[in-house]
């Protein structure tokens, strides 16, 4: 069941605004499977009425009808500051298909658009589309993207661009900001309805516990702690970790100025508009924790339904303190796996941190380095490890490789088996900015073939795809500094 709240204080019922002469830009057959849309041989819906629906031009397909689309209200903290009321200013929830909410981003103005035009540009819609599907293939919880539909409708940003609509899917698009909204407006009836809906639809196990709302809070924190650990593990920087962009299902949502690390820089800032580096790579865990603190504040009235005031705050504070614990465990587990370590030893963390420090100092490519570790032959001399040439301080790196090989030998697993396991957690292909950029520039010329090809490559990020070797490489120096901002 989709978002069930109705009424002016929670949603606006409205139709998407049509775009002129829509055309397919990209379509994910993998996401289509999730919602059982039959496809033709070209991988597009057999039922051609889907194009108009996913453009926001119609509500009717041959087999379904979306009877009452809505935009929802939420509030939130943006860059650490309370921003007051926000809401779906350009995303319209059409309804539900096969237990997934179907939402059109860029589908026109809503009551919550403030100064915005309700639109999204082709460039940012392609980035959201590709990254949603890439993250899914990496095994990272995320909203999915079904399609991008384009139009020649002009949209003004820094320059004149054209409009596009990205159709997204998720079991729920509910955010921390939804809770913050009803807490800030002291609308406790709504706050409770929201929490009850979330429990009934997505966290049913909480219902049978002594304290369902506290349990719900703990579960949301746990999911988001694990989520950030997974981001760190693939070098993903979200870019705008405002509380209105944090899912209460622990999904990655709102792909704006995100970026995957090319060379490893611990304090990398992917969003050009984030001048203070609030959302830099190394700050993501701490920022997610901060967002969970925002959620905790919003949960106070819910906990107070069953506990005195002071006790409620203590309970939430204690629950919140679990975040770094869960995050730390998830991070350590993941990075052990990335190094191919099966057992746990006390010095492992130091070994991982020494590697990351050396990668940072020498600006070593994150994805290719971790992928390359699987190739190490523990019986061969260190001088045969080609990656050692990527590091400035070769002597200290030789020391590291020596320690690493000794550590691997302390486990009895075969090199071949270790390689297989490592290649399941260290992707070969990630959505590097320069790759997305090529697909975008071609799409802007109405050539969508590169987009389709890139999607296909990113759908199997852990596989060797010999014919696409160049898509695994770091960007050439002239393309390494593409700037991405909040403009979308
Ligand atoms: N072009 C626009 N028109 C109307 N509202 C907008 C526009 N761009 C952003 N907003 C609104 O501004 C707020 C913050 O924007 P943000 O960039 O976080 O979200 P978004 O990218 O629009 O959407 P989402 O979080 O749903 O992926 C949201 O309330 C969003 O709906
Ligand atoms: Mg957003």
From TrEMBL:
EC number: 2.7.7.-, 2.7.7.108
InterPro entries attached to this UniProt entry: SelO
NCBIfam families reported for this sequence: PRK00029.1
Keywords associated with the record: ATP-binding, Magnesium, Manganese, Metal-binding, Nucleotide-binding, Nucleotidyltransferase, Transferase
Protein name: Protein nucleotidyltransferase YdiU
Reaction it catalyzes: L-seryl-[protein] + ATP = 3-O-(5'-adenylyl)-L-seryl-[protein] + diphosphate; L-tyrosyl-[protein] + ATP = O-(5'-adenylyl)-L-tyrosyl-[protein] + diphosphate; L-threonyl-[protein] + ATP = 3-O-(5'-adenylyl)-L-threonyl-[protein] + diphosphate; L-histidyl-[protein] + UTP = N(tele)-(5'-uridylyl)-L-histidyl-[protein] + diphosphate
Binding site for ATP: 87, 89-90, 105, 117-118, 168, 175, 254
Class of the enzyme per the UniProt entry, highest EC level: transferase
Pfam families: SelO
Originating organism: Polynucleobacter hirudinilacicola
Annotated region described as Disordered, given as residue ranges: 469-488
Family designation: Belongs to the SELO family.
Keyword Chaperone listed: no
Coiled coil feature spans: none
MF GO annotations: AMPylase activity; ATP binding; magnesium ion binding; manganese ion binding
């Amino acid at each position: 069941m989709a978002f069930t709240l109705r009424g002016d204080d929670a949603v606006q019922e409205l139709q998407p605004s049509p775009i002129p002469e829509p055309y397919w830009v990209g379509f994910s057959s993998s996401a289509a499977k999730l919602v059982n849309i039959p496809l033709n041989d070209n991988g597009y819906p057999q039922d051609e009425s889907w194009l108009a629906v996913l453009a926001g031009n119609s509500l009717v397909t041959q087999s379904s009808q979306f009877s009452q689309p809505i935009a929802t209200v939420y509030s939130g903290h943006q860059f650490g500051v309370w921003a007051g009321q926000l809401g779906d200013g350009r995303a319209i929830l059409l309804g539900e298909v096969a237990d997934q909410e179907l939402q059109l981003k860029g589908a026109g103005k809503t009551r919550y658009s403030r100064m915005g035009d309700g639109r999204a540009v082709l460039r940012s819609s392609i980035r959201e589309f590709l990254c949603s599907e890439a993250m899914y293939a990496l095994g990272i919880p995320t909203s999915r993207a079904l399609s991008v539909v384009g139009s020649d409708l002009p949209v003004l940003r820094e320059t004149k661009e054209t409009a596009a609509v990205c159709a997204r899917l998720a079991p729920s698009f509910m955010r921390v900001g939804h809770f913050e909204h009803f807490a800030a407006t002291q609308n406790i009836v709504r706050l409770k309805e929201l929490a009850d809906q979330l429990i009934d639809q997505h966290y049913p196990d909480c219902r049978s516990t002594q304290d369902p709302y506290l349990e719900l809070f703990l579960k949301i924190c746990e999911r988001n702690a694990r989520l950030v650990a997974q981001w760190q593990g693939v070098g993903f920087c979200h870019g705008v970790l405002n509380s209105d962009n944090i899912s209460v299902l622990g999904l990655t949502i709102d792909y704006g100025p995100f970026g995957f690390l090319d060379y490893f820089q611990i304090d990398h800032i992917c969003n050009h508009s984030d001048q203070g580096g609030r959302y830099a790579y190394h700050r993501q865990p701490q920022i997610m924790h901060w967002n969970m603190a925002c959620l905790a504040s919003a949960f106070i009235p819910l906990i107070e339904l069953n506990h005195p005031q002071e006790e409620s705050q203590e309970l939430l504070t204690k629950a919140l303190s679990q975040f770094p614990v869960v995050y730390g465990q998830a991070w350590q587990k993941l990075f052990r796996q990335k190094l191919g370590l099966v057992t746990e030893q006390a010095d492992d963390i130091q070994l991982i941190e020494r590697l990351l420090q050396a990668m940072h100092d020498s600006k070593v490519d994150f994805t290719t380095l971790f992928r390359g570790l699987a190739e190490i032959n523990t019986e061969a001399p260190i001088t045969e490890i080609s990656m050692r040439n990527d590091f400035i301080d070769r002597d200290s790196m030789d020391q590291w490789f020596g320690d690493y090989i000794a550590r691997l030998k302390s486990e009895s697993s075969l090199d071949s088996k270790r390689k297989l396991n490592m290649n399941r957690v260290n992707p070969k292909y990630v959505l590097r900015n320069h790759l997305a950029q090529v697909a975008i520039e071609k799409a802007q010329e109405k050539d969508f073939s590169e987009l389709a090809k890139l999607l296909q490559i990113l759908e199997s990020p852990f596989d060797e795809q010999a014919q696409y070797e160049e898509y695994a490489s770091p960007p050439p120096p002239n393309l390494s500094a593409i700037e991405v901002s909040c403009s979308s």
